[in-house]
Structures are given as C-alpha cells and as structure tokens.
C-alpha cells in the first residue's frame, strides 16, 4: 500500500507541475482532457484512483507521456526495469494486462509497453493527439489490431504500425495468450491547444 501511496503522490506532483507549465487552469485542463474539475482537484491532492484511459487523456492534453506523469526523477544513466516490478495500468477481466515499462527522454519521447492479451479479451483505446504513432510487435500468440473499424490480424513474429489519432483496439485471438511489445511514439513539443 505504501508503494501505491508514493506512486499517487508522484502522479499528483507531476500532473500539477505539467499543468502549471502549460499555463492551464483546472477548468481549462478539465475541459480539454474531458475530466471533471473535482476529479482533477482530488488527483492533484493525491486522492482518488484514475483509470488508464484518464491517464492517457491527461498526458495527451499536457503533451507528455503517461510515464512522465508517473515517474520520479531518473537517478541513473542506465535503467533496467523488470516487468514484475511495474504495476499494470490496465487489467482485463480474463487476465489481460498492459504495463508501461519506460519512456525515453528527449523532444519526441517513446513509451515502451508490455501487453498480455487473453483470447477474446479486447482493450479499446480512444484516439490520441495528432502525430502519435503506435507500433505493436507480437512475440507470441495472435491478436487483432482494429484501427478505425478495420481489423488487421497480427501474429508472432509480425509488427504493425499505425497513426494513433484514430479509434483503435487490441483483441487477443486463438487459443493461447498473446504477448506483445507496444511502442508509442509521441510527437515533439506540447499538445495542440485546439
């Protein structure tokens, strides 16, 4: 529980700092991110429990990666991260999960995710900001990548890439668990103010 409390305090600090840097009031931030002001106030006080979709909307609105909102300061030049030390940001009812392993630094960061999709389980994602590109590399099993309503089968040994500003989803298929590595390439600079 202490680890969860510390993670929530880090998230609260990072959201508040990024919102302040962006010059956004709570009202404007909430409007752009489609999150209630009350939920934002609670989050910035390290209260509540935002879900994965909310974290993605907040990060997109602030023009930062999800992990930039969740990580403390980097202390070492090289970081080695084990999947079992990273809490899943999404878990499905049948045992699927997504873990944000790390985010590269720089003007156009890349998030690296490890996903496990059980057969028949699906994760729908809202469209990201313009310029986001996602890549999925299936290491075992099979999945269906759904982009703008079109289904694309992807199996072990295959990689697919697409613009993340369209509605998309990931669905496990077949009889075995699908394991994949997903990268999310973020555009340089802050999110558009449109």
Task: Return Rg in Å.
Answer: 17 Å
- N- and C-termini, Cα separation: 39 Å
- Note the main sheet: 6 strands, antiparallel
Order of strands across the main sheet: 1-2-3-10-5-8
* Helix fraction bin: 25-40%
SSE pattern, N- to C-terminal: HHHHHEEEEEEEEEE
What does the model show?
The chain has 194 residues and is an alpha+beta fold. 27% of the residues lie in helices and 31% in strands. The strands form 2 sheets. It has a 6-stranded antiparallel sheet with strand order 1-2-3-10-5-8. Strands 4-9-6-7 form a 4-stranded antiparallel sheet, with no helix packed on it. The model has no long low-confidence stretch (mean pLDDT 86).
Task: List the SSEs and their pairings.
Blueprint: H1 2-22, H2 26-33, H3 37-44, H4 52-62, H5 66-70, E1 90-91, E2 97-103, E3 110-117, E4 122-125, E5 133-140, E6 142-147, E7 150-155, E8 159-163, E9 168-173, E10 178-185
Summary tags:
27% helix; 5 helices; four-stranded antiparallel β-sheet; 194 residues; alpha+beta; six-stranded antiparallel β-sheet
Q: Summarize this, please?
A:
The protein is an alpha+beta fold.
